[in-house]
Amino acid sequence: MADSDAVYPKVKLNSVNRLRNRGKYDFATIHGLVNKSPVVHVSFASDPSEPFPTILPMIGQMGSFQDPSAGLDSPLDCYLHGYVSSRIMRLSKEAVARGEDGLPVCVTATKVDGYVLALAPFHHSYNYRSAVLHGYAQPVEDDDERVWAMELVTNSVVPERWENSRTPPTKTEMTSTTILRVKIHVGSAKLRSGGPHDDRFDLKDESVRGKYWAGVVPLWEVMGEPIASGDNSVAQVPGYLRDYVQKQNDENKEIALNAARE
């Protein structure tokens, strides 16, 4: 795939308007943010008579059932995991039954890498990475794709967890779980890194610079030592889990520190 093909088209719906230089439209950046976020937020219109949109925290992961080896820089769908009778699942099924592309949804993911403290409150900010996807949610009906998506989502929580837990799913588990496939229409990302951007007159004022601390407080997610459940009978924390916790903690710290220095 050519680099020019590995981006979402820039249209009115997904264009970053304020601080446009922070906008990104490439697949790899956007898909990577979704896949690194433990929770995505999914918004949709729940009722034509209701003026307020609905927004739900959900577990989501980018992937391609047709091409499971596809990288983040490839066209991917967003798979969402939920309970069979939930409102978003019902509305998605109804939309498909009407012959529509699916339920229009917006999926967002955000990572905060630091608090940016400037000389003046006006210039305080965050170092962050955020992604927004617009698309159409459809229930996955094919059993093979559903199981594949369940594995995808499970391994997004902890890699190798699917094969290190009791599988395959039981009939009851399959019946009570619905997987939504969001066909992406457009997407965009917005990122900030670096220190504060203070006004020139404050930077020239030694009394201000000498009185107020300015800089970045790096911020990252840290996973603690795994704690066994009361029903656990495995003596030691598995190596795949211990390795993942350490690797992810190191990676999160490095990202936050690098963002503060840029």
TrEMBL record:
Top-level taxon: Eukaryota
Gene3D superfamilies (UniProt xref): Electron Transport, Fmn-binding Protein, Chain A (2.30.110.10)
Annotated InterPro entries: Pyridox_Oxase-rel, Split_barrel_FMN-bd
Pfam families: Pyridox_ox_2
PANTHER family: 5-NITROIMIDAZOLE ANTIBIOTICS RESISTANCE PROTEIN, NIMA-FAMILY-RELATED PROTEIN-RELATED (PTHR34071), FLAVIN-NUCLEOTIDE-BINDING PROTEIN (PTHR34071:SF2)
UniProt-recorded name of the protein: Flavin-nucleotide-binding protein
Organism field: Lachnellula suecica
